[in-house]
Each structure stands twice: as C-alpha cells, then as structure tokens.
C-alpha cells in the first residue's frame, strides 16, 4: 500500500474536522502560528533573569531556571489548557481517524525504510 504525504495531510484535515464537529474549541493552524510566538514572547519576558551573570556557572544556573520557568508557565497557560482539552476530546471522539493516521504513518515509515 503506497502513500504519499498528501494522504497524511488529508487525514490530519479530517481529524481537525472531526475535532471541530465534536469538540468545539476550534484551533486552526493559523491561530496556533499566531498565538505561539506571542505566548513564547510573553513567557520569555516573565522568566528572563534580571541579574546579569558574572560567571559561567551563574549563566548555567540562569539557563536552568529559565528553562524550568518556561516549561511550567507554558504548561499552565490558557492556550496550552485549550489544546489539552481539545486533544482529550479528540482522543475520545475521533479514534477512527487517529487509527487511520497511524496506519498511514506506519506504512509510510515502512516504505521509507525499504529504500
């Protein structure tokens, strides 16, 4: 069974339509692209250390603190909660479409590995 990448795109569109129909909370790819940089910028401002590091060790600690803060704040953002809620709903309501995507992906992987 041969698939090209348009099969995956079509299946992903089908999953979006299923999610929109059953789950509401419409999140289009353009909304994601628009919101993601804004949220990343906002989190970056919130997590950036005000103190300028004087040593390599301070820089490393600042970076670790920033990464931890960024992950924590991003996970608790309204945007992330909306995506998580949508995903949970899709998992319940759109299983058949997700299985179709898995089949396409596994057959595509097999085809790519056979070269």
Summarize the structure.
The protein has five helices and no strands. It has 115 residues and is an all-alpha fold.
Task: Please tell me about this protein's structure.
It is a single chain. It contains 5 helices and no strands. It is an all-alpha fold. The protein has a domain at 61-115. The two termini are 15 Å apart. The mean pLDDT is 83.
Cα radius of gyration in angstroms: 20 Å
Structural class: mainly alpha
| Proportion of residues in β-strands | under 5%
Q: Whole-number average pLDDT?
A: 83
Shape: elongated
Helix content: over 70%
Can you count the helices?
Answer: 5
Largest sheet: none
Give the termini separation: 15 Å
* Topology order in helix (H) and strand (E) letters: HHHHH
Unreliable spans are none
Q: Compute the number of strand runs.
A: 0
Task: Give the helices and strands, then pairings.
Layout: H1 5-23, H2 29-47, H3 56-75, H4 78-93, H5 95-113
Helix pairs in contact: 1-4, 1-5, 2-3
Keywords:
single chain, elongated
